[in-house]
Each structure stands twice: as C-alpha cells, then as structure tokens.
Amino acid sequence: MYKKYTSDIGDLSRPPCGPRGRKSRLACKRAPFWQGMPPAGVKMQAVFLIAMMLGTGSGIPPAEKHVDYVPPLPPSAEVQARAAVGDADAQYELGVAYENGVGVARDYVQAMTWFTKAAATNAKAQAELDKLTALHAQYLALKAGAEAGDAKAQYDFAVSLHGPNRAWGETDDAVWIRRSAEKGYAPAQAQTADYYYRGYLADLKQKHHAPYEADDGAANLPEAMSWYSRAAAQDDLDAEYTLSGLYALDTSFRDLDRMEYWMQKIAYRSGNAYFKPGARAFVEGKTFLDAQGELCRYYSGQGMHRTVRENDWQLMVDLGSAVDYAKLRVCYEHQAADIYAPDALLKLADMYERGLGMPVDLKKAADYYLKGIDALDQIGDGTSVMARLGLVYARGGKLESAYFWLSLVGRYQPYANEKPTLDEKNPVYGEARRALAEVTAKLTPSQRQQTDAAITRWLLAHPPKMRPPVMMIP
Hints:
- The structure is a single chain.
- This protein has 474 residues and is mainly alpha-helical.
- It folds into two domains: 255 residues, no CATH class; 120 residues, Tetratricopeptide repeat domain (Serine Threonine Protein Phosphatase 5, Tetratricopeptide repeat).
- Helices cover 58% and strands 3% of the residues.
- α11 packs antiparallel against α12 and α17 packs across α19.
- It is elongated.
- The relative contact order is 0.08.
C-alpha cells in the first residue's frame, strides 16, 4: 500500500509533461519534483538566503543582475574563407558550429564534412568526427528498424526526430507516427489523435502528406476521437484520460456514460500499476490521481472541472451532477486503498457515521477514523478527527475508547514549539467537551487511571512534528 497523500483536487490539469502537441510522450524525461531536494530546514535556509540576496543585491555581481540574451553569431566570413582554403582550425570551428547549431542551423552532415577535412591534422576534429560517426551509426540502425516495418521502431524513430537526430536531415516524424499508428501501436495512435485534435494538420498539409489532408488544417474532432478510441482500447492511459475529457467537456461529443466508463477504467485500477520509479511513471501516477479526484468529485455532486493548458490550448468547463452515494463510496474506497488518502478515509468515515447512502455503521466509521488519524499523524493535525472518533465511540457505548480519544483532543501537540489550540468556532470541539464530561462521570476511578496511562504512552509514541514549510508555487 502506498501511503501517498492527495487532497481534494481543485485545478485539475494534465500531467506536467506528456504527449500533447508535437512533443512525444517518450521524449518526456522530467524527473519527479522531489528528487534531489535537500531537507526542509536546509531548503528554508537557502530560500531565506536567496531572498536576502535578491532583496539587497549582495552576493550578485552588478553586471550579472540583468543580462539580455544575445543570439550567437554565425561563423565569420574570415573563418569561412580560411576553412575553404584548407585551414584545419577554421574547418574545426565550422564543424563545431554546425554540430551545436551555433549561429547556424544544426546540421550533422555538414559538421561531419568539415571534421573530415580537418581530422588529418587536428586531433580535436578527429575526436568529434568519431563521436558523430557513432551517432550516425545509431541513427541508421534506428531508421533501418523503422523502414523494416516494425511499429514500435517506427514510433521510436519518429520520437528521435524531436531530438538531435533531426540534425541528420530527416524531419518527417509525422509520417512515421502515422505508419506506426496504422499498424496498431497505441502510443502512435494517441499521438496521431493529438495531431488531428491540435490543429497541426495545417503544417502537415504544407508538406503534401496525403494521409493528413484536411480543410485548411483545422482540428478534425471525429478523426481524433477515432484514434483516441483505438489507443484507449489498448489501455493507453493518456488516450483514456483525454477521451474521458472530450466526452465530458466537448459539447459536440458529450456522452456522460462514456466519460464515466473511461474515468472508472483509470481510477479503479490498482495504484501499484502507476507508482513506480521513473519520470514516465510519475506522469502516469499524476494522471491516475487526477482521474480518481475528478471521478469522486463528479459523484459527490460538485461536477467535473478540468483545465488543460498545453502550448496554446486551453479548455476549462464546469459540469454539474447529482450526488450518487453508492458510486461515491466505491470511489473513496479506491482512493483509500490505493494511496491511503486522508481525505478519502475521513469522508468514508463520515458517510458510515451519518448513514449517507448506506445504513449507519459505527464500527466501520471508527475504523476509517483510526486510519485517517494514522495518515494525518505523518503529515498534519488530526485533532478534529480524534474528536469525531471519540464521539463515535461514545455514541456506540465504548466508554473507555471514547474517554481515550476525547481526552487526547486537548492534550495532543501536533507541532513542535506550538501549544495545542482548538478552534472554538468548530462545533465538534464543544460537543467533544460535553461528551467527555458525560463519559468521565460514567467511568470508575480504576478505568480512568488505566486509560490515562494508555494516553501517556500514546503521547510518548507520537511526539510533536516539525510543521512543514509553506511552498509558494507560481
């Protein structure tokens, strides 16, 4: 079980990187944001120091405070003239310019030409030539696999054309994507759907690729839906998620039953399928959490609010719905089981306590409150949950358990260097105080003494935590 926390999702957005637009999903190599972060105390010291430096200007050389970007200049006429008459140093300089795209378009073929001319008398040119020769061999092997007709190889070759391999002169990645899609490769089918939906047909049509002909390159939604459906049928996560959004948010294709089907297919898989090491798994895990949060909110009657901001595409729509307690309970149970989310645990406890869409079950309510306290003990303040749990035990006649949790409400210190404070406006605390007085009167001195000893042991096992820093994300 993965003890990952997710709160109610407000601004629902697509994963931070992925297949949208012309950028391929396999080209996305971002690492999770928490990798490489220093401990919280070190982070706060670093943030404070940076803030002081930016505020006072100390520690930053004046010439480096505001530096305007100056594009690199192309190789000078003098360098080109020297290279043309056989100057090895100038030829090497031209090769480096073409290899790295400094002042000229990156062109590995031109770079190899100049390195070859200079290699006889320039060791650095020979080293660069050897490196490019090895890269060219890899490029040719990748292209050979694509030309052999393997669908995955065709897709991988198209993906490589978004990177340095584009410098070998091959730029028709869309053709290889389409060939791979027609052979049934799900990521290529989803990418083809993206091309249709995003309106990239205009660019493709200018290249006279017959399979992509469309009226002025306008987005072709029926064709996009067709390709998304083919990819989603093969369990492509991005296609499933995008398809659910189109069925919910695009009025021309609105079908809430199909939206619900695809959302459930994502949200009701086991979280173990997504939370694995690697940047790609992080992206999939984010989509999985988004789908669970959206579906639970849809069943709770809050509608579905999805925002997609990728490149120049933005869609934000609210979709109302009625409360469906039976489906909502199933959704929260998946959240609670897959990611141990405190919100889902506490909402399940509340539903069982109040009998929302089901018979009242105080035992299950108490079990979920206990799990919620356990989860919140790692990340936050569970005082109000302790009060709710004590009230449930008091209602069920379990006086010693009620006394234990109701007494903890005023004694538990969740954060170091902060005295326990209760929000007097919260009616739960007032109800907890009254219940504690009633329960205390019913217990014998021996029962109170034994329970007080248990409370002391619990407090020693749960010392105050450091309050997590507030992170402002622009």
